[in-house]
Amino acid sequence: MRLKYQRRWAGLLFALALAGCATPATKALAPQAAVPQEAGAQYHIPKTDCEVRDWYNYQVVAIPAINNRWVQEGMSAEERAKHAYEIRHEARVNARFMMPDQSEVKELRERDKQKYGSPDGPTFDYLVKKGLTEGGKENQVYEEIIQSSSRTDTTYNAACQKH
After folding, report:
1. What pLDDT digit, counting tens, does each position of 126-140 carry?
2. Rounded to whole angstroms, how far apart are CA atoms 143 and 146?
3. Rg of the chain over all Cα atoms, to the nearest angstrom
4. Rounded distance between C-alpha atoms, residue 117 and residue 90, angstroms
5. Contact in structure between 143 and 81 (CB atoms under 8 Å)
6. DSSP 8-state assignment for residue 31
C-alpha cells in the first residue's frame, strides 16, 4: 500500500515539474529534478504533522499554474475541474497517509464523514451539486472547484506557523 502512495506522490511531483512549478520544497522531496526514478528511489518523508502540512500545501499551490496550462491546451472547464479536484484529493489522502499521528487522521476522517458524507473529504459530485444548489451555473461551478482546489485551511496552516 505504501508503494501505491509513493507512486502517486512521485506523479504529483512530476506534474509540478512538467508545469514548471517545482519549488525548493518539492525539489527537496523528490529525487533528481522531481522526476520519478527506478524503484527504491529515496524521498524525504515528512516526519511531523507540520512537515506533512507543508508538503500538502506545496502540492496544491501549483494547481493555478497547471490550470493555466490546461486552458492553453483547450481543456473544458469540467475536465480542468476534475483534474484539479484529483490533485487536491490525492494530496489529502497522501498527506493523511504520511501523518505520524494516526489518531488525528481518524478524527479528520470522522469530521469529513459528518461534513461531506465521505471520510476522505468531499467528492467531485458533492462539490458540483453544492455549487449548483447555491445558484451557480455549470461552468461557474467548475471554475470555483478549480479555484478552491488550491486554497487550504488557514487554521491548520497557522497552527504550524506557531511551531
Report:
1. 999 999 999 999 999
2. 5
3. 16
4. 18
5. yes
6. S
- Secondary structure (3-state) at 5: helix
- Give the long-range contacts of residues 142-147, CB within 8 A, separation 24 or more: 142/77, 142/78, 142/80, 142/81, 143/77, 143/81, 145/81, 145/84, 145/85, 146/63, 146/67, 146/77, 146/80, 146/81, 146/84, 147/64
For residues 87 and 60, the answer to whether their CB atoms sit within 8 Å is: yes
Distance set, CA 120 to CA 45, 88, 90, 94, 137 (Å): 21, 11, 10, 11, 26
Contacts of 122 (CB under 8 A, 6+ apart): 112, 116, 130
Residues 42/129, Cβ–Cβ less than 8 Å:
no
Q: Is 147 exposed, middle or buried (0-12, 13-18, 19+ CB in 10 A)?
A: middle
String of b and e for 126-140 (b: at least 16 CB within 10 Å)?
A: ebbeebeeeebeeee
- Give the pTM: 0.72
Q: What angle do CA 4, 64, 85 make, to 5 degrees?
A: 45
pLDDT single digits (tens) 62-86: 999 999 999 999 999 999 999 999 9
Spacing of C-alpha 136 from chain mean position: 24
